[in-house]
Fold this protein.
Amino acid sequence: MSVALLALRARLPEMDAAMYAEGIDPSGPLGVWCRVQKDIVAALAAVAEEQGSGMVERLASFQQAMQAAIELVEAQVALLKAGTEAARRLSSPRRVVRAEC
């Protein structure tokens, strides 16, 4: 969870304290509006947290897929090198040694 999100969550109780300090009646129109604002901020913090954790999972999945692709390319390069070396050996002139009887 990000530092900003933690700070936001930590400040939510301050909204209630400020409302009571100002003498706002919680059951009155302004009190209801303040509680709704607090609920909205809490919901937005929850959405941000959920999106953040989903992003981490998606990035980890992407990283695994990229690592698998890198390993596949490395294996293909090794195979091509081996094939090139084999073709080079087959095409190089061979020295034929004849046994004399």
User: Anything to note?
Assistant: The chain has a mean pLDDT of 85. The radius of gyration is 34 Å. The chain has one domain: 3-91.
